[in-house]
Amino acid sequence: MDERALVTNRRLAEADGFSPTPANRRARKKNARVPRKLRKEARELAADVACNPPAPALLPPKKSRPGARAKGDPLAHSMALVARELAQLLVETWPGLNADGMPDGGYAMARGLVAEVVYGELARMRGMKCTPIDAGAAADMRAACDRMLDRIQRLPLADITPDHFGCVHEALSGCHFEGGKVVPNNGRRKTGTHFTPPDLAMKVTSRTVEPLLACINDQSPLVLRVCDPAVGAGAFLLALMRMLAPRVLERGDAKTLDQAKRLVAIHCCYGVDRSRFAVHSCKLALALEARADRMPRDWLDDNVKHGDALVGLSNEQIKKFHWQPSAEDHPQLATLLDLAMTEAATSRSARVANLSSAARGAA
Question: At 2, is the pLDDT very low, low, confident or very high (cuts 50, 70, 90)?
């Protein structure tokens, strides 16, 4: 390269803001074959873009997935906020609840009481009978319940469904008492507690149960047994009840849709959860959906149980009294277990028959 070309490249480099360092010289030398006209046009284009930047591209609005709960859903959001507010009202009005001797500072009792008060008000809104607050209860407790009722009645109760017990369960699972206040914690993340939208629950339930219905042919849907191993507040069991009840009614196994829902809950709906509050909320949601105010208080105790679905022993392990099913047999223990299982099955059948009669006879 002659001296004239080197001088030209140096001037171009200085015009572009580059100092004529050895590295820049090597770069310019590499691109020395680019015509001067193109380089000039590139500099002019870069200057024009710097002075007049293009407008940012506008992305199309994000489409919401069917069944997904919008973050701005006012009713679900209100239920979650009101649940925490009710717990705070409870601890403020009932100082003895947060006493040092109470387990978890009384938070477990507060959660259960909030769920009961919400259920009672929703039941009365639907014309169902509900056990009133015991007149003999402590004055602080009755005052706290009165304040909670006053707050609940400001909600649009006619629009609230049993599915919204999931919002109450979700909100209260992520808090605890600290210094007389309801403060958030990581309880929801640790336990995997999340609200399942009703549309999503129905979609999953339909895809799961439809093949089972095709297998039973002309039999009653009441022969199905469906268990949710992490039942939570019962979103999938509620969807199952709504899916099977019309079929039960069409077959003539029930006279009304509410009767059909109660029969489906007794025969088909089963669930397990590690949280006692989730089990309690699930029973209340199912009772509200099936209008089971005239059913026995413990009508779902055999269906929705507190426990861990991931751990436990099989019948063979219990019979052999060992973790390994290939261990030595214990005939006496196996005989006792078989007898106990037979008695339990007989007792369960009799109880199901009695509950089914009550479900058909309840108004």
Answer: low
